[in-house]
Amino acid sequence: MEAQDVILDVKGLTTTFNTPAGQVIAVNDLNLSVRRGETLAIVGESGCGKSVTSFSLMRLLASHASISGEVRLTMQDGQQLELLSLSESEMEKVRGNQLGMIFQEPMTSLNPLQTLGGQIMEAMLEHQVCLPSEARQKAIDLLTLVGISAPELRFRQYPHQISGGMRQRVMIAIALSCRPQVLIADEPTTALDVTIQAQILRLIRRLQHEVGMGVLFITHDMGVVAQVADRVAVMYGGQLVEMADTRTLFSEPQHPYTKGLLAAVPKPGQSERLYGIPGQVETVYGEHIGCRFANRCGQVQDECRQRRPALKTLPSGQQVRCHFV
To answer: CA nearest 192: which of 109, 282, 105?
Structure first.
């Protein structure tokens, strides 16, 4: 990976929450990068730290959360911003401008008291030098770009007046309104039917090529990953356990957890019972000595419970966190 191609560089990202039951380490020493024009998918079960990662990058977590590490965003002019060291006022200039996000639940992420057009215009009026009339026309153009018919009418409507699929498209329009360097898409198709889901995936891919942005695509759906991702990062228990290009990950998975995820994907014509990874995800309270996946792994050995595995880089460039790869 060429250094000049990396637009988002994350090193040692660790996010902890202080709770009455103890300290929760939701994201533990995460390293990843996104190239310009690339889609990096983060996959894993619910609770593995995917969404917490996205909210950590956007600095949108509550005050009882602690975020450490380095998050560097490269601007179009080559300037680098260290996001975790910015003040809140400085971060507000980046959030929604250079760093956009499609939130997970379109049914509740839009303001029910504000028109769709007003919500799209908000970021442009905040971050760009333009008149309200210019922002209005850009908002209508964005509604057209994301495939919404009668954009002038939709511009004046409220969220309750449109369908879930159209709300998701409005969320995409908001996220793209300032042409961000990086778009974080947090499970943007989870609540949609398969027809609308396919349309949204094609739309994100097309807009990515047109705008030239990097995309961090968060999902638990391996079928979606196969369609949209250039590279895949697999998370488990707040840790990165495997990373590879999409073709390699699907054809030659190395980590037992990755193999389990792929084995659980339904296949056309499959008649036997679907595979399920045995056991349950361990608690993320406090420090953990051994491998996070040890209690569910069919290849577990004593060393797995006694020593935390390091993230190894194989000759192919694939990264795996396992003692016995």
So the answer is: 105
